[in-house]
Amino acid sequence: MSKACKIVTAITLVTVALTVYILASAQLSADIVSIKIENAADRTDTFAPLADAIERGDLADNQFRALKSDEAADYAFVTYTVELSGHCPISAEWAVLSLSPVGGDVAFLPGEEQDVPPFSSRTINATLLTAREDAEAARNLWVEYYVFGRAMSAVVRGQ
């Protein structure tokens, strides 16, 4: 085998190994930092426009059901704060929080998408409007994000 073939083979092997490493380490870790529950009656400035948007159907995929009552006191806002940690030499892009709704959940406001630079952390927030009696219910949370345009997800721990 000629010297040029050995060099090309070595470069190819290094490239393949590096690609496998990047794809294998492209996972974010997601840990719950806080869960804040607020009565919607204490945030009528947020509840009223949100109720109007729900009635119009403006929330599309983020709306689980219609409001059963127009009374803010019947609902609560649950705000989740999650820390994302990247363990990859490339950025994770468009990270957003998602959840599986329970019985009284009405709408989910996922907040701003976050990019997580290589080997660093970012915090994301999302707020759920739910029936007051379901505010403390356990929900499955996860983070959806992209690496190299490939959709990935990570389960949120510590709930």
In words, what does this structure look like?
The chain has two helices and eight strands. The protein is an alpha+beta fold and 159 residues long. The radius of gyration is 21 Å and the shape is elongated.
Characterize this entry briefly.
The chain is α+β, with helices and mostly antiparallel strands.
Into which percentage range does the β-strand content fall?
35-45%
Helix content: 10-25%
Q: Order the strands across the largest sheet as they lie in space.
A: 4-6-2-1-8-7-3-5
What's the mean pLDDT score? Answer: 91
Quaternary: single chain
Low-confidence segments, given as residue ranges, are none
Which key features would you list for this structure?
2 helices; alpha+beta; elongated; eight-stranded mixed sheet; 22% helix; 159 residues
